Amino acid sequence: MRTHARILLAVALFITAISAFAVQDQRAAAREELNQGVKAYKTANYDEAIRHFENAVSIDPELKVGRLYLATAYAQQYVPGVETPENVAMAAKAIDQYKQALDIDPVNMTAVKGIAYLKMQLKRFDEAREEYKRAIEIDPNDPETYYSVGVVDWSMAYSEIMAEKIKLGMKMDDVMIQSPRCKDLRVAQMANIEDGIAMLARAVELRKDYDDAMAYTNLLFRLRADLECGDAAAHKADITKANQWADEAMAARKRRAEKNQGVSDSPR
User: Fold this and answer.
1) 123-140 per-position pLDDT tens digit
2) Where are the alpha helices (DSSP H) in the chain?
């Protein structure tokens, strides 16, 4: 009986060893495909890169970095604003790979931000904002994520306001405050505008000279001014704030340019 038990144990150990070697070989093969994909990606040979990355995740489905590289390669092939089925499908493939990376690592910022960016480009604004706010929960001290939420908020409000102006035969620079549609637009979009202003304020708080965030704050105050229905004084106050933020953005850009110039002029 003891001899039989020893034989069974030896067989089990042998099978375990073979399995371990097989897993190692599998992982090595996946890594080799990944490396080849990275080389192709760096030379902008995206079709070849995608083929290698697809092979890598097929060999090792748990290879998170492979999922991320494949998603990035798909996203690189996606052209924002082009709504052909093939182009939209490429974005969908990228989103799917980012989601599979999140199945492996639920707090992976690259994947969360990648999904958010693609959904914003696809004009799925509500979903994009949800993803960016998920990123804020993961890292509440990242100014770029707050900025991105502000951009999404502006995009939502701007697109609807401009679409309404077109319907009414108005020019883009015409204000909505006397329009009969102003109150409906205010109800629909003022929360987005206020959320955007708050998100951008947090971005500037975290990055003092964040000129892009300041520029979008200017744009959001201009949208808010557009929806100060029948209130000329409130409209004027918002335009004043918008101009102040535009000035702040210009000043921040100037400071950054001077700082960069100082660095380039410094002795080495």
Assistant:
1) 999 999 999 999 999 999
2) 2-42, 46-59, 64-77, 85-104, 109-121, 125-138, 143-167, 182-206, 211-226, 232-265
